[in-house]
Specification:
This protein is mainly α and 203 residues long. The chain has nine helices and two strands. Helices cover 65% and strands 3% of the residues. The longest helix has 26 residues.
Amino acid sequence: MISFVITAVFAVAYLLVTVWLCRGVKLDTRAVCLGGVVCALTLVLATIRIPLPTGSNITCGSWIPLMLLALVYDYRLAMLTGWVCGILAMFLIPGWEAVHWAQIFVQQLVVFSCLGYAGVFGADKRWRAVCGMTVAVAIRCVGHVLSGVIFYSQNAWDGWGAWGYSLAFNSSRLIEGILSIVIVTALPLGIMRRAMVKKGGMA
């Protein structure tokens, strides 16, 4: 019962905070086009997977497009784009489907849109970007773990229990998150952000 309560509180709190942060976002033609391109890149990269012994996998950098959108353009647009990605993932990514309608709120609407949190602290300083990406990765990992506990506990290995299984199975998410942070941090974010401004201003 406690697992359900924790999961419900997490999902509701996340969605409320994210909706509040997205207020005032401008969905002009440029923003919609950027969001569409990033959504397509995210879903394509998410289909290219490296399998792990635990049965989980690491994708080919699918976290990076949304993080970059949040850091060099507008984190609010990245959050909205993430929601679209989460819904489309159920139909377009092989093997990615909700086993229960509630999973859509616990996982699908969280694990992509949370990458928009990479830009909540700004990107003018490298440490700000790292802090934002760390928050984004932490939220995504929590979303995956809670989803595993609630919706996939029947797959738990003997003697592991729901929490142990979910933590072990989703450890790959933390690895992928750390790799994504390293890659994005190595990119010239300042130059990329200035280039976006010169080409039409911020959203």
